Amino acid sequence: MPGPFLPSPDVAAALAEGRPVVALESTIISHGLPRPRNREAAEEFEEILRSRGVVPATIAVLDGVPRIGLDADGVRRIAEEELVKASVRDLPILAARGGSGATTVAATVALAAQAGIRVFATGGLGGVHRGASETFDESADLLALASFPVAVVAAGVKSVLDVPATLERLETLGVPVVGYRTDVFPRFWLSGSDLPLDWRVETPEEVADILHAQDAGPGSAGLVVANPVPADEQWDPAEHDRFLEQAFAAAAEAGVRGKAVTPFLLGWIVRASGGVSLEVNLALARNNVRLAADIAAAYAA
Ligand code: PSU
Ligand code: MN
């Protein structure tokens, strides 16, 4: 009978020895990126970490067992199988039934915290959806960031969301947000916004100092490290705005609700843009994985 979760041998050894580990989510692979690029991306993200001396811990639930770090077959499974999108609330159900699921930011953060992993890289966070005052659709990612001591490196929140409302909720929930070499909150495919941040950091070491200060403090909140996609790799803003409006119209027409909303919008935009949004999504995710590696290394040092 496996324990409540199963770290891979690499991850277990690194954690025991205090070497740097970075968590990676699996929903971005299973539901956020199209096949077959998703499998290449999963392998590439892990390789970026290894090349920087950091152990990758891609997280997913496979056959009822939360896995912290996957082997090659596990990576293949999250890319190729039809897994459910698993948030925090789905974890006990999958465990009890022996089911499999790709973990969202929220579920990945919960499992990373349980395993003792302090740093996590993704593409963009979930947040408050547009029209949330009617639908109440707000990602469980926000509550998880308030509940578990894991720093998330993200290119802000997806621009399909209500970004100002998301920042307000992060403030209410007590989740610190720092801009990495930026004074404004990035919008996923776009490097900038008109939303100022209170705090800016310039180096991975500064982020590591914040993590150590959190460790010594009273709370258990996470941290958002907002890392903009480099300006020369961002999506053309006018084109971005045009596709976004069309995607909302398509979602309304299709009557998409609940946890299907985010995958629908991302998938629709990839297809409609002829893959332009996909290249930017991959660029920003790589950029986040690199920074997370450097933060984890500074934190372990
Ligand atoms: N960021 C990406 N692609 C994604 C996601 C984030 O670049 O697919 C996923 C994450 O797993 C995040 C989820 O937790 O979208 C948010 O979904 P929802 O809005 O239903 O909470
Ligand atoms: Mn939702």
Question: Can you walk me through this structure?
Answer:
The chain is an alpha/beta fold and 301 residues long. It has a domain of 117 residues: Indigoidine synthase fold, CATH 3.40.1790.10. The protein contains 13 helices and 11 strands. Strands 1, 2, 3, 4, 5, 6, 7, 8, 9, 10 and 11 form an 11-stranded mixed β-sheet that branches. The mean pLDDT is 96. Manganese (II) ion binds next to loops.
Furnish the topology, listing elements before pairings:
Layout: E1 6-7, H1 9-17, E2 21-24, H2 27-32, H3 37-51, E3 55-62, E4 65-68, H4 72-80, E5 84-86, H5 91-97, E6 101-103, H6 105-115, E7 119-121, H7 132-135, H8 140-147, E8 151-154, H9 163-172, E9 177-180, E10 200-201, H10 204-216, E11 223-226, H11 237-254, H12 261-272, H13 276-300
Pseudouridine-5'-monophosphate binds next to α2, α6, α8 and α12.
Task: Provide a short characterization of the protein structure.
With 301 residues, the chain is α/β, with parallel strands linked by helices.
